[in-house]
Amino acid sequence: MRHEEHNVGDDEVNFLKIWIESKLQNITPRYQRRQFPEAKRKNQLNTIVSNEEGQAHCWINQNAKLSLGYYEAPQTVDYTFNSLNKALFLFVISGSIMLDGQTLQARDSMGIWETDHISLVCAADTRFLLIEAPINH
Fold first, then answer.
1. Is pLDDT of 137 > 70?
2. What total of structural domains would you count in the chain?
3. Does residue 27 lie within any of the structural domains?
């Protein structure tokens, strides 16, 4: 496999590249594009990618889910998931989050497993990404 990306402009680019393997081999690749305007995501956690088909998010051929959170005011966000053969990955885009006594700042991340529930204590103006994905034992 060969993959290449580069910035075609003069402006600095800041993004995440996330690779998730499909659950089946030799399937036809597909591409979807959805808009998730921040103004419509304020003070909530929104699914942006899921293994369930739907118009509100992108569909992925894997038992995975990606959710974006954006909270203007300090808030505790409870998240429950089926932890059977899964892990949760938290990436702080901006702001800060406290989880189990640890404070994560912008661009920090944490892997979470052996639990099915977390409580994120978000500071004001915090944005984050949660990735729920299968793991191999």
1. no
2. 1
3. no
